Amino acid sequence: MTKSELIEKISESLKLPAGKAEAIVNCVFDSMVKALERGEGIEIRGFGSFTVREYKAYEGRNPRTGETVHVAPKRLPFFKVGKDLRERVNAGTGQPLPVDDSPDHDDDLATDPELDEDDED
To answer: Does residue 43 lie in a domain region?
Structure first.
């Protein structure tokens, strides 16, 4: 999914103009980037967490020439997947899930066959 597809999905789902949906998505991403720039972590329950990892300087080698190269210290974002997302991805078949267009659908019902309302015994 691309950023523009996410904006389109939010626009359709919330019945918002595309410009407002884009503003929402940009606000969320900008806030996340600013938090990571400050070295703060981001935790989204059921999805995962973003942290900043610090790496020390080291001497590396250019693979083409074999020449020694100094690599400066750096900070990089790191994502750790949450348990719920990991389980949902592992349970998936690699095929897109069908879209439930009903306004009062419950995402938990779609992931737990025991809670499926359509199955009446």
So the answer is: yes
- Structure pTM? 0.66
Q: How far apart are CA 80 and CA 15, in angstroms?
A: 32
Counting every residue written for the chain, the total comes to 121
Query: Are residues 44 and 82 in contact, defined by beta-carbon separation less than 8 angstroms?
Result: yes
* DSSP 8-state code for residue 113: G
Location of structure tokens 């949902």: 88
Give the span between the Cα atoms of 104 and 92, in whole angstroms: 23
Residue 77 in any domain: the answer is yes
pLDDT of residue 97: 56
Burial class of residue 98 (count of CB atoms within 10 Å of its CB; 0-12, 13-18, 19+): exposed
* Residues in CB range of 97: below 8 A, 6 or more apart: 110
Q: What is the mean pLDDT of the chain?
A: 84
Which range marks the domain in which residue 37 is found? 3-87
